[in-house]
Amino acid sequence: MTRAGRYGAHIGRYLSVGVVCAVTHNAIMIGGDFLHASFALDFAISYLIVTPLGYSLHVRHTFKTSPNWHGLWRYAGANAAGAQISFILTVLFISGFGLSAAIAAPVVTILLFFWNFAATHWALRAMPPGVIQRARAAARRAGASFVANWLRAN
């Protein structure tokens, strides 16, 4: 397969997972609005459901890699930053512009697509396997050397 073909397939896999996450998030937001729940509660529930869902789908489907704690924490952190942006935009559209959640949530989802795409790639593709373990081992060796040198000097 050509590089363009692989990239196109990757984008397709990302979009399919993104649609599942977006539909889940929007259903929670619109359902919460229907039940007259607060935006903050809706966002918290959405974050707690969509983050592990998105991570597991992206790991298995989009990137076809093994799940690991480091990737999960990076993904959760990137989603937390995106959730704050999303929350601010949603409050602006609903409270500031008077839009309903049924309109505001999908509009915000579309606006955040590029943030989510970049953040997901940063979280799940930034480090090849084994880099964290090698970095920790190097830090231990460097720390031990630093302490030994400091003790000799003092």
Report the biggest beta sheet as strand number plus sense, adding barrel if it closes: none
- Structure classification: mainly alpha
Instruction: Kindly state the percentage of residues in helix.
Output: over 70%
- N-to-C CA distance: 61 Å
- The average pLDDT value, as a whole number, equals 82
Number of domains: 1
Strand content: under 5%
Radius of gyration over alpha carbons? 20 Å
Low-confidence regions: none
Helix-strand pattern, N to C?
A: HHHHHH
Number of strands: 0
Please, how many helices? 6
Protein name: GtrA family protein
Subcellular location: Membrane
Membrane topology: Multi-pass membrane protein
Pfam families: GtrA_DPMS_TM
List the helices and strands and how they pair.
Layout: H1 3-34, H2 39-62, H3 69-96, H4 101-111, H5 113-125, H6 131-153
What does this structure look like?
The protein is mainly α and 154 residues long. The protein has one domain. The protein is 85% helix and 0% strand. It contains six helices and no strands. It has helices at residues 3-34, 39-62, 69-96, 101-111, 113-125, 131-153. The chain starts with a helix and ends with a helix. Its main location: membrane. It is a multi-pass membrane protein. It is found in: Membrane.
